[in-house]
Design brief:
Length: 361
């Protein structure tokens, strides 16, 4: 193949595809509308979840050909606060998640992936917004509409390393809030699944809650906001482009853990080009069952609210959290039966996204 494969969007999904293609000697050209990778994010900490598969996520990434040249810190424990009960401690013998940094900053996942791709000879074209693309391009342009919003801040602190999650509708409507601290740097955010006009109020309550509960000192506060998209559709091959990451709606609808979907879908799109295998076949086998399950999980959380959160907190603290979450993140017969009801509950949003995506690369 002489002409480089066009990749639109230098997020984790697009760059993962570039790394895999380059490892197989296939030339790639990645177009990014901003001057560098990671401009959408703010140097904040995010969690690369490590519960949805039995193999460790870091080993899975290495198996795909993605090295760990970015901050990637295992967290084995944390605490969970739910309204109406005492905080619980959650701990596992394996990392529950890996803390990574996101954005256009040194040591971030984004800059690490860019460096790996460049070292392998990938060509980056920055400051170039793509509106149209040749056949068999890979399209990883990120979220297109807000199903979830996050409002938060990064800061410096003298506080110790910690991970705290809060499930309380007063702080994040139908969502959750989190606090992550690593070596004097921290991130806290409130993630909302509705009532987006309450974002300022949610931010204020979240900030007050964490300051009060953890007595953490906060300096150099920098606020940020972001959003995420989730939808399901039958084909991810549109206008002969292979859609990956959040531009394909690949997102964990329960809590917004989209990084794994992004990296894995980039890998699958690259495989489809390298091996001549239908991309729809690959993502439907590898991603669809978990995507659908996440929709059902979100439906259940919205139905059962506070009682559901209390059940969750008790289970997370009394059993191995990774095993418990793996069971609930993966396909089951019961969840399969609930899927049509969950789909119906969210059908309006799905239809709107499909319309938006017909316009957007
Ligand atoms: C505040 C916040 C916290 C989050 N926390 C977590 C977490 O803890 N764990 C987790 O797993 N996930 C988390 N996520 C989700 C995760 O960040 C995303 O799912 C992931 O980054 C999606 O990767 P992507 O490659 O699909 O898209 P993106 O990371 O959005 O990358 C898309 C890239 O395409 C570029 N682009 C867009 N349009 C064009 C165009 N027309 N031409 C050229 N370039 C274009 C964009 O500038 C961008 O660089 C969080 C998201 C937010 C906003």
């Amino acid at each position: 193949m002489n002409e480089p494969v066009t990749i639109v969007g230098a997020g984790p999904a697009g760059i993962a595809a570039a790394i895999v293609l380059r490892r197989h000697g296939i030339p790639v050209r990645i177009f990014e509308k901003y001057p560098d990778v990671g401009y959408r994010l703010s140097g904040d900490f995010q969690g690369l979840e490590n519960w949805s598969t039995e193999p460790d996520v870091v080993e899975l990434l290495k198996g795909m050909g993605i090295g760990i040249n970015f901050l990637c810190v295992p967290y084995y424990s944390g605490s969970v606060h739910v309204s109406g009960m005492d905080a619980v401690k959650v701990a596992s013998g394996r990392p529950i998640f890996y803390l990574v940094r996101r954005g256009a900053v040194p040591g971030s996942l984004d800059t690490g992936l860019r460096e790996q791709a460049m070292a392998l000879g990938a060509e980056f074209v920055f400051n170039h917004r793509v509106n149209d693309f040749p056949d068999m391009s890979i399209v990883g342009t990120g979220p297109t509409a807000a199903d979830i919003i996050a409002v938060g801040m990064t800061f410096t602190t003298t506080g110790e390393d910690m991970a705290v999650a809060v499930f309380d509708d007063e702080i994040a409507l139908r969502g959750y809030a989190y606090l992550l601290v690593h070596r004097g740097f921290g991130t806290m955010a409130s993630v909302l699944y509705g009532d987006f006009h309450r974002e300022k109020e949610s931010f204020a309550r979240m900030s007050e809650f964490f300051r009060g509960k953890t007595a953490i000192d906060i300096r150099d506060e920098k606020r940020f906001a972001g959003y995420g998209t989730f939808f399901l559709r039958n084909s991810q091959i549109l206008r002969k482009g292979l859609y990956v990451g959040e531009s394909a709606g690949f997102q964990d609808y329960l809590w917004g853990f989209g990084m794994r979907y992004a990296l894995l879908s980039g890998f699958l799109a690259a495989r489809s080009i390298m091996e001549g295998v239908d991309y729809d076949l690959l993502w439907k086998r590898e991603l669809k069952p978990m995507l659908e399950t996440s929709l059902v999980n979100r439906f259940l959380v919205e139905r059962f609210g506070g009682a559901g959160y209390r059940y969750l907190a008790r289970k997370l603290s009394s059993s191995d959290p990774c095993e418990f979450l793996r069971r609930h993140y993966n396909h089951s017969f019961g969840k399969h039966l609930l899927l049509p009801i969950a789909k119906r509950a969210f059908r309006n949003r799905t239809r709107l996204h499909n319309m938006a995506l017909r316009r957007d690369p």
